[in-house]
Amino acid sequence: MILYYSATGNTKFIATELAKKLDDQCVDLLGRIRNNDYSALHSDKPFIVCSPVYMSMMPRFMSEYLKNTEFTGNRAVYFIANSAGYAGITSWEARKLFKKKNMEFMGCAEPIMPNNYYVSNYKAQSDDEVKERLFKAFDKIDEIANSIQNCEKLKTRHVFFIERLITFPINSYMYKYKISAKDFKVLDKCIGCGKCEEICPLRNISLKEDKPTWGDKCSHCMACIGSCPTNAIEYGDVTRQKGKYNFEEYRHFLNEIR
Question: How would you class 17 by CB atoms within 10 Å of its CB: exposed for 0-12, middle for 13-18, buried for 19 or more?
């Protein structure tokens, strides 16, 4: 069973491609996370968990969900942590989490995908860079699928102690002082469809007079910006300058190179 959470499509792409290659069931965890649904998940095949990386770690809502959910059946678990270039201590975090569940950790792969965190200080990625990363992702997914089919452990990057020492305080600082929804704004072209409200993993968005408003539990997943059908959501002036990313905008490109 392949489990995933995806905000702007990168993780969904990896999970669904793996499901095709492995002939396995694919489960979107968004609804379970939103509803605090911790009912048991059963799989006769190894579990494969696909997750984005936020501030060099698993998204907090993702780790909280995994910690509170019972996994029955097969005791092996693979972890896929996709990032824009550095997955931080995510593999160490995942290993520790599943060890506490008495599961056999079969390693962590760290595919590099296009950057969807456009509100950061990173320079905007070009269209060619996005396409190059997606093109390379196909080879990485094939490599991961072959290892899983052969019941092999994934080659996992070693996480050094200094990485953990640095990451924990930075991650905490970011969530406390930098991860805020106060700079989100909606433009007049908003049609009040409610999609942003439906896809927020923390239920942090609600519609008032057919316009989204944000609460104080934002994770900066960027799902609301990336998935708006009329491109009506901005984050300060940053997104106007850098543009926005959603995987579906490149679906035609992937169909061409397959």
Answer: buried
